[in-house]
Amino acid sequence: MARYREDFYYHNFKLKERQRATELAKARVLGGAALKPSAPAEPLPLPVWAETKEKAAAAKTALWSKFAEGTKEWEEKHQVFGHTQKSNPHRPKSLLAVPVLVAAKDGGRGGKDAAVFDEDEEDGDEVFVGGGASKAGAAASAVAAPFSGAAWGARKAIEGAKAALLEIDEQRRLLQRPDVDDAQRVVIRAALALKFGALQEGLGFEPGVFDQVRDVALLAAIAEQDKGKKLLAKVLALLPSQAPALLPTALRVLCCTQPPASGACAGGAGEDAAADRFALKSRREAEDVLVGAALASVAGSGGAAPAFPFKACRAVVEHVMAPHVRGNGTLASCLADKGRAGLLSAVLKQGSARAGVEALEEPQQAYWRTLTAAFLDLAKRAPTTAVTAAE
Known about the structure:
The protein is mostly helical. It has 13 helices and four strands.
């Protein structure tokens, strides 16, 4: 029915394989080798319309309902395991009578210094919560909601943004269908605008305002994770205009961590050493992808990306310097990585170039020269203590 969706991962693999082959051929040509003619690539199947997917889903649901009705009597007669409901899944049977800590209620006995009790609804038993605690204190001691931490929020935002990226890719390929008319193009573009908004809101932007990140803490938590770095690289490639808003926070988080050493965990044996090597490889790969995408955004490779403005260059340098000025007072360990050093060098060059192009006033140019000198001074200092986390 929909080869694009059913075989998406296979087609994505073939696209990446084709891209690697193209990059390898370019490297060979730059090295002086002759370019060999390659076989024509198999065209990627185009997505189907939403109505086609809805009809297919409705037909599948009707078929399963028909099978369920035909086998229901036999399953109930023979007590088929997994098909006959034995209890209410929303109210599981209590096998152990275990007291549960609850928050204090209004009108507790004995005032604020008394112990907090709660009466069980079924048998009237009183459950002890704690002594010497007020209502507010008992409420604060209640168990927090699960999956409410910053890391879990970042994971949820990453998954939502990745889902929006897949929908954007499908809608963009849907525009390539030869049978698309003007009315359908309007519908597709409206769906694209909706998915672009969901993608940017998942990265911390305020709805409708995409020149400044509102939730900086969420963006920093996303940039700390390997999958978050890869997501930001995809967003920078898809939306180069968002680089001035995303890169200051992302590079600040990146430069607050030690570069992954290529030779670490190389000689260990066992499952733990293998897991450490895999984690180190994943971190190295994610950082390389993000640094490459950021470098393309700053340098404007390809000519299609907008110029990285002076204001963004200044923000990147300030964000990268700030934790090190208050921390170990040096950028030597951060710039020991070749990719990071090349990226920050490109930011400094772009800032100096844009300062002349944008015809800035003398106070702003003087501040940029002072900022650049302070950055180079931090880069030359010997390391003392490591920066532990981004502030």
